[in-house]
Amino acid sequence: MFNDKFTYGPVRKTEKDTLMSIISQSLHIPEERIQMTFSGIGLENFRCMKDGKRIVAGLGIYPMAQWFGGTKVPMAGITHVGVAPEYRGKGAAKALLVNLLRELHERQYPISGLYPATLRLYRSVGYGRSGSRISYELHTDVIDVADRSLDMVPAEQGDEQAIFDAFAAQARQSAGLLERHPVIWRRRLEQKGQLIHKYLIKCGNRIEGYVLFAQSGQRMQEPMLILDYCVLTRNAGRRLLTFFADHRTMIPRVEWAGGPFDPLVYLLPEQKVKITGKSDWMTRIIHVKTALETRGYASGLQGELHLCITDEILPWNNGCFILRLQNGKLQVEPGGEGRINLGIRELAALYTGFQTPYELRLTGLFEAPEEDMGLAAMIFAGPRPWMSEIY
């Protein structure tokens, strides 16, 4: 039970500096960076928790969408969750998140997502691990690809829409990629005090990919930092690797973030890429029916699943549901036999394709007859979910 003194609500202009200070101290990030988020998503997308009249915790909300099954699903991306140090362990953070989830349900968001500083807190309110961001490093002198069949063309000011379109094409055939908020795009395309190099990968007039990268320019032999890239064809990936290799005399390595089956990793003939880090992001199913019906599914597949879902925080998700899939469209109705028992966190991992039913049975609350396991695996099959950005 939460402290009755805690109250949840929007942030007033006069309270902005106080919340910024709490977030900065809590997350160990400069207020200048937090100010950029305030400016980008607006004060109206920040929420706070108060003890009486005093702000003790807060967070920001990115109104976005996320791609699953070739379809965009509206998603509230949560950022800058901060709690005043003297209020940690008093329930302020959990109360903030529970109230947020109730608000997001009223605003008809099917799902929410975030990068956790700690898993325990977010698991306690129903977020489940549901996708990955993997950091890669590749030394340029070991790239044994030489393919210049496509053109690397410096992007001009009017080429931003072409970059957006290429990314959307990639997102449709992937899982977990964002329909990026303008703030996130801005961080890719421009950074204060940093020159961003932008190239399109073209076959004639057709764009098959792009790359955005930065070089410090301060010292020789520093890495090339890939801020964003997209390849839509095998040739585009090979051309980009060749482009990296052509920098070998001055740049020792290339660093980027991607997914578990990153094309630059698998287009190399040998295992030359090093994984330097991995972070899992989390998803919260806010409304079971809307989330499941909005997501895309493989056409030509049909079947019926009977779920029994446990959600200790959001009561409208509790109970039994019938899932009927036909011609790529899923319909959800209350009722049924409840043959598959699972928690709301496990549903998030199944929904995004992060874990199969067989994997969930080993690691979480997921029980089902053997004859239902295969159908559930097929319905939610697809690419492993990932994204390259942290928001």
Automatic annotation (TrEMBL):
Domain of life, per lineage = Bacteria
Question: Which GO molecular function terms does the record list?
Answer: aminoglycoside N-acetyltransferase activity
Q: Please name the InterPro entries in this protein's record.
A: Acetyltransf_17, Acetyltransferase_Eis, Acyl_CoA_acyltransferase, Eis_dom, GNAT_dom, SCP2_sterol-bd_dom_sf
What sequence ranges are listed for the domain N-acetyltransferase?
A: 6-149
Supply the Gene3D superfamilies for this chain. Answer: 3.40.630.30, SCP2 sterol-binding domain (3.30.1050.10)
Instruction: Please name the GO terms of the biological process aspect recorded for this protein, alphabetically.
Output: aminoglycoside antibiotic catabolic process
Q: PANTHER family from the entry? A: N-ACETYLTRANSFERASE EIS (PTHR37817:SF1)
Q: What is the official name of this protein in its record? A: GCN5-related N-acetyltransferase
Highest lineage ranks of the organism? Answer: Bacteria, Bacillati, Bacillota, Clostridia, Eubacteriales
